[in-house]
Amino acid sequence: MPRGDLLGSLEHIVLLALVRLEANAYGMTIRREIEERTGRNLSIGAVYATLDRLESKGYVSSFLGEPTAERGGRAKRLFRIQAEGNQALQTSQDAIRKMTLGLRKSWRTV
Amino acid sequence: MNHRTPSPIAIRLLESVLSETVRDAIVGDLIEESALRAGASNRVTATWWCWWQVARSILPMLWSELRHRRSLGTLSVALAAYLLASVIEFLSTAAISNLFHPDAALAYILGAIVGLATMVLGGYAVQLPLGSRDFWRLPANDTLLAIKYPQIATLVGEATKVGLRQEVMELRLVRQRREPAPLSQRRCNFSKHLGTYGTAHAARLRPSICLNHPSSWFQLAKMRLTSPRCARTG
To answer: Could you tell me the pLDDT band of residue B231, with boundaries at 50, 70 and 90?
Structure first.
């Protein structure tokens, strides 16, 4: 992971959505997956901006699918998580797990 | 455009701010989800949702475009330098006009000195806080930047004898053979890049001086290239 950076919260969520959706990960399904699971109503632009950032870091790759009629004849841009993305996700998950270890009791009393 | 598209105007508005590489994907996603929403609820709700999505997507996409083209850094630095220079210029002109008659020759000379000093200091001051940011780094695939690596610095000296074309060819060959780590993985800030870049250009423009005088620009460039501070920090 470059410079030891952790993922941003949106990057983290988008990468997890990619893992969940596997081969069917594209803008709309990623947005809907996040909305259904977290209740966070993201704009499609925010999703693509995050995916663009992740792609420039080498965490995800994208390729064009076939154009379909229900999309007005426009092709899907499908995304796939890369090995570096998996590693980044693991590092971030580990960091969160370590930071929250033993804190559950304190949270309840706050 | 598909007949189920809830709002062609919104779609066209979004298309106008998107680059070709993402336009079809984003607009297609919007059309697909709008159609799903129109089927699940009604067309008015889907139209509102579509407009809301477009309104919220324009800003992140513009930001992403700016980041992608790396023009934001240039724009912000140019603006900051312009503002800084304007303020200094205004204050100094006011001070000079108080001291001298506006038509006096000394006022013109002082004005020119202040103007030049402002440009130099303004540029220097603006790059200071941004020196280590990514967008200041010159592209890693720039052949001329290969001279940054100490192991090939000596070849530049040979290259100055035969001109730019051969220099570029030799540097390309060296890059292919040795494959140094990309610059993005090395820490070398803008001022160091600029110093190296500038002196190397000077060396190329004045090959006779470089070859005949040991204390020439080229020697300086070579010294900078091989110095441990700038050479291998990555």
So the answer is: very low
Does the model's pTM come out above 0.80?
Answer: no
Say which residues have a Cβ less than 8 Å from residue B225's Cβ, sequence separation at least 6.
Answer: B147, B148, B149, B150, B153, B156, B196, B231
The secondary element (H helix, E strand) that includes residue B79 is helix B71-99
Q: Which helix (H) or strand (E) holds B152?
A: helix B150-162
Most confidently modeled range among B85-99, B158-172, B205-219: B85-99
Contact B60 A53 (CB under 8 A): no
From chain A, pick out residues whose CB is under 8 angstroms from the CB of B35: 70
Is B53–A44 a contact, with Cβ atoms under 8 angstroms apart?
yes
DSSP type of residue B30: H
Question: pLDDT digit string (tens) for B108-163?
Answer: 787 778 777 777 776 666 556 554 444 333 333 344 444 444 334 444 444 444 44
Residue from the list B27, B32, B60 with its beta carbon closest to the beta carbon of A43: B60
Q: Which helix (H) or strand (E) holds A67?
A: strand A60-68
Please return the burial class of A18, using the count of CB atoms within 10 Å of its CB with bins 0-12, 13-18 and 19+. Answer: buried
Residue from the list B56, B67, B185 with its beta carbon closest to the beta carbon of A43: B56
- Interchain CB distance below 8 Å, A72 and B27: yes
B5 touches chain A (CB under 8 A): yes
Contact call for B25 and A27, based on CB within 8 A: yes
How many C-beta atoms surround the C-beta of residue A97 within 10 A?
9
As for the ipTM of the complex, it is: 0.85
